Amino acid sequence: MKEAAACLFSLPQVLLVGNPNTGKTTLFNMLTGANEHVGNWHGVTVEEKAKTFDCLGKKMSLVDLPGIYSMSALSFEEQVAIDYILSHPKTKIINICDLNNLGRNLSLTLGLMEAGADVILAVNCMDKRPLNKVDYHKLQELLKIPVVEINAGKGYGLDKLKKLILSDYSPSVPASYVTSLSENKDVFTAIKILEGDEHILAKQGLKTDKNTFDTIQKVANARYDYIDFLKKECFSTSGRVYGKSKFDKIILNRFLALPIFLLMLGAIFYLTFFLFGKWLSDGLSYLLDISLGRWTQSICLTLFGESSWVTHLFCEAIIGGANTVLSFLPQVALLFLFLSILEDSGYLSRVAFASEDIFGKMGLSGKSIYTLLMGFGCSTTAILTARNMEDKNSKIKTALVTPYMSCSAKLPIYAVIGGAFFGANNIFVIMFLYLLGLIIALIQSYIMEKTVLKSKDQSFILEFPPYRFGGLKRTGKVLWDNIKQFLIRVGSLIMTMNIIVWILSNFSFDFSYVVESGKMSMLESFGKILSPIFVPLGFGSFGAAAALVAGVIAKEVIISSIAMFNNLLSDGGVGMSIKNPSSMVYFPSSASALSFLVFSLLYCPCISSIAVLSKEVGKKWTIIGIIIQFVVAYLTALFVFNFFGAVNRWGWLATLGVLICFVIIMLSVFKLIGVIKKHHTCKGCDGCK
After folding, report:
1. Which H or E run contains 405?
2. Deepest in the core among 183, 265, 336, 449, taking most CB within 10 A?
């Protein structure tokens, strides 16, 4: 691995630089054959990525840098990009710009030229009807740098781009632009400030007084004046506004935005869990059972006999456990597909805009919305995107609450347990769990904002791309990448954990097979120590406790453990098996099953998320976050179990009445405490007006 990395960075490098949402990562994928995540928002790329590519027969290294708007950093990932650019002054840079936003994107181009960078301007035309038409020859003549038109998604213009990479030319800042800058005093100082951040100011011994900021403003004005000149000379526009759509009047309506989003989620869940997804999942489960499952069972019976522990290990742990998780592959793939379509279409950017005010009041930055939305896919990768926040406290809060999001690894838990106890109503249970995770995250963030992690004001730049379909090729890549990652997890981590859990549940501490010896298994001994903790939550069986412990490694292991414990694959009666008092995982009622689902949603991040949290926010906050999550999960599951238990006994109206009375009493108590505290504080206080 180290040798490969050394070889990669020993090759001639080309840097890929551009504003967010210009097609930068799409171009990286097209040139290198990679499949990096592509998003419609700021901060998708949070660190530099490098991969080799064939540049007309010459092997080179392409470095994809995080998106930046200028050479002045406002966040972590922007500083990563700027530091890399400044530390590689002689390296060729592909500056990708969006044809529809070329006027604004050119500000970064001029900043790169001011820094003396060796720039190739690649203008990306992604739409069939672009807003602008450009005279590329004249633009190249005025800027004094190579300019090429490309389509990053379809590969148009890439051969011409590669020829420019290999060509020799002497970049220079246009004389007319230099003249406009030279009208200002202390131009060098202003450009240095525009190139860097606070640490660059300190390094240069500069002070950000009023005169300095006035100079910055003059240079910025000169830059945009020159861009206006380029637009007059080289552009012709259609008059349409980029990203503007008639649908936005409905989708961004303050009263309709949330209901539309909920209806969209409901439709996705229905297609994924009940209609198309269930049919595919049942079909795959049947195929796995009649092929791999029965074939393995037949061989094991022939070689080892029915009573051999080896037969049970292969049939229950290795094949059975893996088949249980694999049968949900179509549903996981469908969920990723729908989320990818929503993201590529530009809809999720509008959801982020519509909910930014709510998130801001809860102590989260607008950038936090992207992190939490990505948490619906995978918490581990989502936590990494919290890096793009310039405020440390916002970063910590966002990272700590991201594991509350219902990631794809939890879907099999909802499908099996929810399907067994709630049937067709499971769609409402799933929506409840998704929304519950988000609500808990916002409440925790609000409490932290008012106590220990007060946030500062942050910049938040949001772009509305036009509504578009990402294309079949892009969609296929997303599907394949997620399927591949799921299969890798099943074939490595999940299967390993299944074997460990099976051994612990079938062997005693003296390693005797419990079926033959009749002794208590290691897992049963351990589970009986933990199970009393969960009795108030309604699932006090030692198998449920053991499944939750195993779920810390990977959430998918929870359902494969339950399948092994209850022998779900062979008896065919999922609901009956889980409700059977003799089973290792026993839920006596729908209230206890829902309590288990809530606890599984909230209780603890998986081990990979814990590792990323430790790296991003430190060990102290990681430990605090895990403790808070466990307490929140316990109290929430306790409330859910007792609330729905009360509903079963008294009915909905009586239970809601009791709950409303309790809330009114608590609010009255808090209000009374506030009045008493205020009266006591103000009495005899000279400083209070």
Report:
1. none
2. 336
Select, from the ranges 74-78, 619-623, 664-668, the one with the highest average predicted confidence (pLDDT).
619-623
Distances (CA, A) of 494 to 91, 229, 269, 362, 607: 44, 60, 25, 36, 13
Residue 93: the pLDDT is 93
pLDDT tops 80 at residue 240: no
> Bridge partners of 121?
95, 147
CATH class of 1-244: alpha beta
User: Ranked by mean pLDDT, which of 79-83, 304-308, 318-322, 514-518 comes out on top?
Assistant: 79-83
Q: Which residue bears the tokens 């412990």?
A: 549
Residues 6+ apart with CB under 8 A from 433: 406, 410, 414, 597, 598, 601
21-70 pLDDT tens trace = 788 888 888 888 876 655 544 545 556 688 888 998 889 999 988 888 88
DSSP states along 218-261: HHHHHHHHHHHHHHHHHEEE-SPPTT--TTHHHHT-TTTHHHHH
- In this predicted structure, the answer to whether residue 635 has a pLDDT above a threshold of 70 is yes
Over its C-alpha atoms, the chain yields an Rg (Å, rounded) of 29
Closest CA to 73 of 388, 456, 397: 388
* Helical ranges in 572-687 per DSSP H: 574-579, 590-602, 607-617, 619-650, 652-682
Total residues belonging to the chain: 689
Q: Closest Cα partner for 22 from 69, 60, 54?
A: 69
Q: Tell me the per-residue pLDDT of 521-571, one tens digit each, with 9 for 90 and over.
A: 888 888 788 889 999 999 988 888 888 988 888 888 888 888 877 766 544
Cβ-based burial of 613 (10 A; exposed 0-12, middle 13-18, buried ≥19): buried
The letter for the amino acid at 671 is: K
Beta-carbon count within 10 A of 397 CB: 32
What mean pLDDT, rounded, does the chain reach? Answer: 79
pLDDT of 638 reads 93
Query: What's the token pair of residue 418?
Result: 């929810």
Which residues fall within 8 angstroms of residue 176, CB to CB, at 6 or more apart? 142, 226, 229
Residue with tokens 């500083």: 79
List helix spans (H) across 252-346.
257-273, 276-288, 294-304, 309-312, 321-326, 329-345
Q: Which amino acid is at 354?
A: A
- In 3-state terms, what secondary structure has residue 610? helix
Over residues 645-665, mean pLDDT: 80
Torsional sign, CA 86, 88, 90, 94: negative
Task: Give the pair of three-digit tokens for residue 190.
Answer: 């202003």
Tokens 């230099």 -> residue: 178
Q: What's phi and psi for 7, nearest 5 deg?
A: -65, -40
Q: What is the rounded CA–CA span in Å between residue 434 and residue 573?
A: 27
pTM for this predicted structure: 0.73
List of residues 6+ apart from 61 with CB closer than 8 A: 8, 9, 11, 12, 13, 14, 50, 51, 52, 53
